[in-house]
Amino acid sequence: HDLRNEDLKDLQELGQGNGGSVKKVEHLPTGTIMAKKIVLIDAKPSVRKQILRELQIMHDCHCDYIISFYGAFISDPNICICMEHMDKGSLDGIYKKIGPIDIDVVGKVALAVLEGLTYLYDVHRIIHRDIKPSNILCNSKGQIKICDFGVSGELINSIADTFVGTSTYMSPERIQGAQYTVKSDVWSLGISLIELALGRFPFADSESDDSDLSEFEGTLSPSRPNPLALPPRTKEQRDKKKKRKSKGVSLQGGGMTMSILELLQHIVNEPAPRLTPEGRFPREADDFVDSCLYKDPDQRKTPKELLKHTWIENARTTKFDLEAWASTF
Ligand code: ADP
Ligand code: MG
After folding, report:
1. What is the pLDDT of residues 199-239, one digit of tens each?
2. pTM of this prediction?
3. Ligand 1, atom nearest to 20 Cα
4. ipTM of the complex
5. How far apart are alpha carbons 316 and 36 in whole angstroms?
6. Would you call 130 a catalytic residue per the annotation?
7. Cα–Cα distances in angstroms (integers) from residue 271 to residues 109, 114, 216, in the given order
8. Which of 265, 276, 256, 258 is nearest to 216 (CA)?
9. 219, 237, 249, 288: least CB-packed within 10 angstroms?
């Protein structure tokens, strides 16, 4: 039952990301609908075979909160990864379509991601490394599952890191070059949850505009050398920078534009974002998000520990009907 490209009929383009594109396909011999991810890899055949071998671990991942894997193959010069198709798409697409996500649903998302991360780490010692709304998928049964986790070290090495898009959910310690741990995924989860609840990427708001940025410059603890710390800027430099703001690689949202470097500096140097305004969301939700976003990874809990949080326990027992919710869009 090896998957072959000839047996797959393209039905629809599902999206494009950093490393390639994803298509909805039908596996003709069985009639199974799948999502086929095409990853363009500039690597030697031996490396490609190694990647393929590493991807086979996904055959052993069986968890309600993890996308099922059908198989992977080389289709020169690409690697194709076939996985479960989630017919409601990813959560970034969902909030862009319907607006901010109901906080009860956000709680269910948090629960699903924590369960998925705990499974990956406890059973397979896998760290996800790319938690973000576009890697959290939903289907019309109301299931929420994560995809695109870092099973293959070779694949991680091979995909050209363009630094655009993917880097923005990165934890402060990762930006500063520390090792990846499960706690880095927890940071990314916190950022993703705020994005879903507010309906916009949390760093792109007017609060983080230039005028405020200077206030925090130079307040960084000297005990931790920080390669990204900004030299203090003069008012003239700030004004000049405002003029050329729209040039270069940039992120846009909520009325401001930040370059990737500025964003990374912001994550390292500024207080972590929060669910705002205070009082709009349940206190337990605020508290959960805060505990995901401790800037010091030693303070941050693991996914397994966070499963015991009151907000998550509530999300587990609540009667909220995700299937009914998913039928509204
Ligand atoms: P990214 O995750 O950075 O957006 P990807 O190439 O991983 O880039 O995916 C592109 C898009 O394809 C995603 O945003 C998502 O909406 C869609 N997609 C990915 N996998 C699936 C899947 N298994 N089922 C349905 N849609 C998917
Ligand atoms: Mg993805």
Report:
1. 999 987 544 333 333 322 322 233 333 444 444 444 555 55
2. 0.86
3. 6
4. 0.99
5. 31
6. yes
7. 24, 24, 9
8. 265
9. 219
